[in-house]
Amino acid sequence: MNASPKGRLIVISGPSGVGKSSIVDAVLARTDARFSVSATTREPRPGEVEGSDYAFLTRDEFIARRDGGDILEWAEYGGNLYGTPRDAVLALIDAGIDVILDIENEGAKQIRAAYPEALMVFVRPPGIEDLARRLKRRGDTSQADVERRLGVAGLQMAEADTLYDHVVVNDDLADAITEVIGILNKVPDQP
Questions:
Q1: Which residues pair with 74 in a beta bridge?
Q2: Is the pLDDT of residue 181 over 80?
Q3: pTM of the model
Q4: Is 174 contained in some domain?
Q5: Is 56 exposed, middle or buried (0-12, 13-18, 19+ CB in 10 A)?
Q6: Which of 57, 125, 147, 166 could form a disulfide with 61 if both were Cys (CB 3.0 to 4.6 A apart)?
Q7: Could you tell me the CATH number of the domain that includes residue 67?
């Protein structure tokens, strides 16, 4: 996927329920890219593993790392802080390994500002109605949460064309995976 000595910083974003995690998992399985483990201040959920699912930090630890420049991008959701630890990502890139970040638009804006060479891909549903069906089908989301997520999705999609290098419509998961891998394979390596 990458022939240069340096790896690439790859951002894959999209609304909740669009299939972004499935696409990222498939890309990771079919390429040499690595996934960046995010840091968070939220409590671990049952079955989550420290360092594999998230780096779990106290709020004070997170803020100290952020203020010390050790967080590439960060945002607050539901009263918890989420961010991408800087050193681990840059070490992989320096070793020639592409690194994928699965982050929201706010984090993507921070990455774009600090790393304009980052490859930015946005995954969107064919339409907001389709996204609503996907969110409801999950079965673990209340109607109020579905409506909130749809509102956020509308804002995210409105920014997609100007913030991201590529927009992929996930109408069919296999096709979307193929398209994302194609983008990663054809985009020239970044300096």
A1: 83
A2: yes
A3: 0.86
A4: yes
A5: middle
A6: 57
A7: 3.40.50.300
